[in-house]
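Input (Cobalt transport protein):
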Amino acid sequence: MGSVIDYTEGTSFLHKANPVAKLIFALELFIAAFAAHGIFEVLAVLVLTILVGVVSQNAQKTFKLVFGFSVLGLILCIVQTLVAPAGQQLFLFITVGGLERGFNVALKTIALALPLLSMLSLMRVEDLMNALVEVVHVPYPYAFTIATVLRFVPVFASEMNHIMEAQMARGVEFDTKNPLKKLQLTMPLIVPLLVSSVKKADASALAAEQRGFYLRNASSAFKRYSLAPADFALMAFGVAIIVVILVF
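Output:
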């Protein structure tokens, strides 16, 4: 089962951009969403982020992320509407101001989470690691740690899926619609997942040491990751978005 942050093949401009430039652009979209106050400003940043995903030939994962975070956004919207009433009362505890704040929180949640996850699916983990070492001069052990975390997320998700499938073959009803029962059935699976994770982490650490982990530096990569004019244009576009949000 694929993960939403697995690399998506493509030939778009963002696929060819430097991983550091893409990471900075995602951070700029995050800042723009955080700085936006009104619903329309947050919605504009969110729509722009979705358009970036569509243009970069990554529409399927982009909309999958939007749908996933929409559930969390809906929960936050309901909570915000109930705990922070303001303005004209519509029905019971629901007010106009509470609804506006609730929608704002929901949209901002999606707009804050979407850029980074969307950009991660447009770059290979090894490219990101090597670019951080060469361009940003991040020490290789730290860059390797970041890359390992990103690599293990889909691995853990796949491992969890395999464990659940094995339990379903034994008659465990994971397809139940009761969320509390599903949580109760899932909790015992954490232990075998942790055991498997520790084994994989230990094997990866041994393999890294045998390949000269402590001897690697920026010159060890086969590919160079210098920033091109298009990368600076991408980062400048992100700055322009922040300026527009702050001004208007």
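The CA atoms of residues 54 and 60 lie 8 Å apart.
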